[in-house]
Amino acid sequence: MRLAIAGPARERERLLAALIELAPAGFEETEIEGSERVEFALYGAPGELPELAPGRATLGDVEVEVRCELVPSDWADRWRRFHRAVRVAGIHVRPPWEPRDRSARVDVEIDPGRAFGTGAHATTRLCLLLLSTWLQGGEGRERLTVCDVGCGSGVLALVARALGVERVLALDQDPQAVEATRANAQRNRLELAAIEQRDALRDELPGADLYLANLTGPVLQRLAPRLPRQSWVAAGGFLRSEEAVVADSFAPRIAAARMTEGEWCALLFAPPQSTAL
After folding, report:
1. How far is it, in rounded angstroms, from Cα 147 to Cα 170?
2. pLDDT by residue (tens digit) across 128-151?
3. Which residues span the membrane (predicted)?
4. How many CA atoms does the CB half-sphere of 259 hold within 13 Å?
5. Residue 107 lies in a domain
6. E strand or H helix at 234, and its extent?
7. Within 137-215, where are the H helices?
8. Over the Cα atoms of the chain, what is R_g?
9. Helices of type H across 48-207
10. Same domain? 130 vs 256
11. Are residue 262 and residue 138 in the same domain, yes or no?
12. Fewest Cβ atoms nearer than 10 Å: which of 47, 160, 223, 259?
């Protein structure tokens, strides 16, 4: 099925913020030709899509038009185009149908299954950049502990392990994400210290030197006070319009690095007493 949500282009950022919470596995975005409207499309089997009735609805306090229709016969090709290979800072992340890049620092193969993505989304790319920046910013950081909170299909955790981090933990509240991360770890012959189902906002979190948190703005605000102040945090998944409130929630940490792509933003937060990136 294809669930289409159309709204005013001027409200694009508000719709994006609402959709990333509603559909973290991703969605298509197209401009409606000849109008000042934008359409977002989600694909899935009956019962897997968000429960939005066709017709007029409200999403993120924005009035939208919702349509539900059968997917076109070329859906398999569309799905493959959506999950494409990406190269960031010499890191190559690809779905199984893309060829290996032997010139890359690391090449990680990710089958998204029903979890979040293969690395092609802007928020994941930005977090990969922050991870690379953190590793290069201090000697011996490969010997520290990295925890991927909300690991999805395991992209960030597996890249961290492939880059040489000795102890990597992956957590997600979704059992399908835990299953996908385990399968992708086996696919890449990478061993993680732990792959566990945990709710980051309710369950006890393990200690780590760096937390990777590619979530959403509201979730990051709730997560921030639960993380040890002496730890680094690579936070992504929020819009540039949310940057100030996200940064405030991580105080007294300071933003040591900032990455943006389009309307998306990611910040690397350093412990209050840190003197080096």
Report:
1. 6
2. 999 999 999 888 899 999 999 999
3. none
4. 24
5. no
6. strand 232-239
7. 155-162, 175-188
8. 19
9. 75-82, 122-136, 155-162, 175-188
10. yes
11. yes
12. 47
Q: For residues 126 and 233, state if they share a domain.
A: yes
β-partners of residue 62 are: 59
Ramachandran angles phi, psi of 78, nearest 5°: -65, -45
Q: How many CA atoms lie within 13 A of 270 on its CB side?
A: 16
| Global pTM value | 0.80
Edge-to-edge order in the sheet of strand 86-88? 86-88, 91-94, 106-109
Asked if 256 and 147 sit in the same domain, the reply is: yes
Q: Among 24-28, 32-36, 218-222, which range has the highest average pLDDT? A: 218-222
Rounded distance, CA 161 to CA 106, Å? 10
Structure tokens at 14: 């508000």
Domain count, the chain: 2
- Tokens read off for 167: 């102890």
- The CATH number of whichever domain residue 165 belongs to comes to 3.40.50.150
The two counts, helices (H) then strands (E), for the chain are 7, 15
Dihedral (C-alpha) 121, 127, 129, 134: value to the nearest 10 degrees?
A: -170
